[in-house]
């Protein structure tokens, strides 16, 4: 009976059209689902090892293009057509509308301020004094620890190790740069090597757990708002009063008042982001370009800042303190995902900061559009006309 309910696998070569077909047949027998469209794909399953197990086919997402948007960044500079994979009607149109405003106002200024990726082991001792003593030893042996950690990677560099004591536990947070990879696996391997060296050479003995959960992998945390995980990226613009009135039918003074209300509401709710909808643009871009979709939970957190200027223009800035993106490795090399990255000029090594700036600019465009739709009273009517609210 156990074999009858085992998903078919081929230990020698499991990523083939034949094995995908066999699994779909198995699922049809077990569930009644035909999986006709899931099994209709064009990519070669041979490119999938390392990306998926028990492959049965492809889930097709509609991809639209927003823009172009003028970005005046240190890495992304020029006009960009932004691919967004989504099933939400009006989303692409809304981002394009925000991008039009950005262009009319001279473009968005983007800056990658800092970057780091973490693994945070926990070391266990008999009491707090032993924990404190261990922390001092780690500081004294930092160069040896860095050498061991970096021996596992040609890209990752150990910046520093933060430390916290709780009861008899010493939490260490290893901070790395990881080049154009998101780097979670890279820093896990490097930190494991470092911890094994620590365990072998610490003179008083210790035990550890490789992740004490202070790295907050695939989770939002306030720690990451202060000490960035991924890239801290800022997108800024001065929205011209006359442009906002002409295109968005919104007065900038009213935008300032609405922003105060929104900030208060977000604070009361304990929201991870005080702007309209950072996750929409990030998730759509992540799906289109082969990012780790679970990283949306960390990446969407941030701060939307505003200032009404004396001449009536409106300064607006998005700060994303934990934007986790990659342009090399993982899912970025899969055929359609690579094409979307190539559309942005962001596939391959040396492009991660450029892509991060594009993501931040996209979030800002979406926030401008949705905020104005809410203020001007077009939010519901636009969904009625173009989106999911249609009967």
In short:
This protein is of the alpha+beta class. The protein is built from 13 helices and 10 strands.
Describe what this molecule looks like in 3D.
The chain has 391 residues and is α+β, with helices and mostly antiparallel strands. It folds into three domains: 48 residues, no CATH class; 213 residues, 3-hydroxy-3-methylglutaryl-coenzyme A Reductase, Chain A, domain 2 (Alpha-Beta Complex), CATH 3.90.770.10; 89 residues, 2-Layer Sandwich (Alpha-Beta Plaits), CATH 3.30.70. Strands 1, 2, 3, 4, 5, 6, 7, 8, 9 and 10 form a ten-stranded mixed β-sheet that branches. Strand 1 and strand 2 form a beta hairpin. Helix 9 runs antiparallel to helix 12. The longest helix has 25 residues. It is globular and about 70 Å long. About 1% of the residues have low confidence. It is an enzyme of class 1 (oxidoreductase). Keywords: Membrane, NADP, Oxidoreductase, Transmembrane, Transmembrane helix. Belongs to the HMG-CoA reductase family. Pfam families: HMG-CoA_red. This is hydroxymethylglutaryl-CoA reductase (NADPH).
**CATH fold node name of the largest domain:** 3-hydroxy-3-methylglutaryl-coenzyme A Reductase, Chain A, domain 2
By CATH, the superfamily of the largest domain comes out as 3-hydroxy-3-methylglutaryl-coenzyme A Reductase, Chain A, domain 2
Summed over residues and divided by their number, the pLDDT gives a mean of: 93
Order of helices and strands: HEEHEEHHEEHEHEHHHHEEHHH
Q: What is the count of helical runs?
A: 13
The CA-CA distance between the termini, in Å, is 47 Å
Subunit arrangement of the protein: single chain
Secondary-structure arrangement, i.e. CATH architecture of the largest domain: Alpha-Beta Complex
Number of domains: 3
Helix vs. strand class: alpha+beta
């Amino acid at each position: 009976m156990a074999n009858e309910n085992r998903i078919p696998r081929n230990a020698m070569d499991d990523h083939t059209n034949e094995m995908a077909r066999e699994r779909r047949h198995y699922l049809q027998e077990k569930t009644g689902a035909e999986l006709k469209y899931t099994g209709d794909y064009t990519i070669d399953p041979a490119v999938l090892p390392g990306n998926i197990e028990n492959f049965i086919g492809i889930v097709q997402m509609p991809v639209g293009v927003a823009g172009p948007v003028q970005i005046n960044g240190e890495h992304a500079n020029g006009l960009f057509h932004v691919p967004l994979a989504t099933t939400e009607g009006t989303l692409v149109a809304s981002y394009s509308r925000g991008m039009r405003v950005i262009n009319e106002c001279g473009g968005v200024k983007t800056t990658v301020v800092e970057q780091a990726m973490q693994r945070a082991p926990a070391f266990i001792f008999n009491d707090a004094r032993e924990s404190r003593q261990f922390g001092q030893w780690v500081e004294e042996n930092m160069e040896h620890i860095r050498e061991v950690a970096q021996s596992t990677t040609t890209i990752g560099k150990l910046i520093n190790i933060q430390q916290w004591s709780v009861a008899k536990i010493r939490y260490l947070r290893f901070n790395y740069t990881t080049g154009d990879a998101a780097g979670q696996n890279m820093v896990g391997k490097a930190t494991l090597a470092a911890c094994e060296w620590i365990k072998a050479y610490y003179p008083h003995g210790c035990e550890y757990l490789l992740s004490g959960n202070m790295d907050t992998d695939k989770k939002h945390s306030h720690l990451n708002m202060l000490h960035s995980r991924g890239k801290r990226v800022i997108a800024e613009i001065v929205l011209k009063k006359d442009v906002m009135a002409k295109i968005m039918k919104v007065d900038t003074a009213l935008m300032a008042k609405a922003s105060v209300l929104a900030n208060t509401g977000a604070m009361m709710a304990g929201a991870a982001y005080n702007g309209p909808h950072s996750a929409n643009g990030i998730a759509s871009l992540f799906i289109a370009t082969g990012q780790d979709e679970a990283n949306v939970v960390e990446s969407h957190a941030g701060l939307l800042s505003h200032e009404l200027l004396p001449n009536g223009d409106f300064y607006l800035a998005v700060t994303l303190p934990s934007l986790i993106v990659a342009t090399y490795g993982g899912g970025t090399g899969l055929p359609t995902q690579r094409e979307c990255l190539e559309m942005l000029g962001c596939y391959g090594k040396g492009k991660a900061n450029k892509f991060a700036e594009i993501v931040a600019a996209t979030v800002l465009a979406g926030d401008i559009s949705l905020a104005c739709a809410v203020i001007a009273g077009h939010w519901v009517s636009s969904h009625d006309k173009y989106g999911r609210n249609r009967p």
